[in-house]
Amino acid sequence: DELRAFDERVRKQLGGIDYDYVVELKIDGLAISLRYEEGALVTAATRGDGRVGDDVTANVRTIKAVPLVLLDGNKIPVVLEVRGEVYMPTSAFIELNKLRAEVGEPAFANPRNAAAGSLKLLDAKITAARNLSFFAYATGQVSEPLAENHYQTLQRFKKLGLPVNPNIKKAKDINEVIGICLASSEKRLKL
Q1: Which segments of the chain does DSSP mark as H helices, in order?
Q2: pTM higher than the cut 0.85
Q3: Would you list the DSSP string of 107-124?
Q4: Are residues 64 and 127 in the same domain?
Q5: Domain that holds residue 5
Q6: Which residues form the NAD-dependent DNA ligase N-terminal domain (predicted)?
Q7: What is the pLDDT of residue 170?
Q8: Contact yes or no for 183/175 (Cβ under 8 A)
């Protein structure tokens, strides 16, 4: 089993250090990077080739789930790069393909392609009408540490007004991870 082999490697590398796992449902969307400076969104880019991506700032600004300004009251790093996933919920995907069929346009093959295509449109008004959503899942460049571990980072994101996957669970060991994964397989199909 791949998960048990992974757990063995982690335990060996950590040499007895106590750790928890964080289990998150995989969202099939488009990876993006949001750059906030002094709490304000300044740029949004796709991952591209891993080094250089497309500037999609204008279109990302139309996604209701992406805050243009992070919430006050929390110590916000001067520079905070948030990595996350732009995706199209299943209900929005079905509705979009229905509308496309009505006007004789070809259907999108899947929600990921629809989300990716929507972000790259030249008209942000069309992107806004596509009902895209976003989950934050990691940091990139930060001017100062945001949290001590991944779970704390996700909790900090929520306090800053950044949406995170609501299906996040902490697990004490690999058996608990496997149990969460098995129980979550049905939920993933409904996103």
Answers
A1: 2-14, 57-60, 90-102, 111-119, 124-128, 150-160, 174-189
A2: yes
A3: PPSSHHHHHHHHHT-S-H
A4: yes
A5: 1-25+167-191
A6: 1-190
A7: 94
A8: no
Q: Which residues are catalytic?
A: 26
Q: State whether 145 and 185 are in the same domain.
A: no
Supply the pLDDT for residue 188.
58
Q: In whole angstroms, what is the distance from residue 79 CA to residue 35 CA? A: 7
Residue 182: the pLDDT is 85
Task: Express each pLDDT in 40-91 by its tens digit.
Answer: 999 999 976 556 788 999 999 999 999 999 997 668 899 999 999 999 999 9
On whether both 70 and 107 belong to a single domain, the answer is yes
Q: Is 93 in the same domain as 9?
A: no
**Domains in the chain, number:** 2
Same domain? For 173 and 124 the reply is no
CA quadruple 93, 61, 168, 25: dihedral sign: positive
**Judgement on whether residues 6 and 38 belong to the same structural domain of the protein:** no
pLDDT-based confidence at residue 34 (cuts at 50, 70, 90): very high
Q: What are the tokens at 70?
A: 């992070």
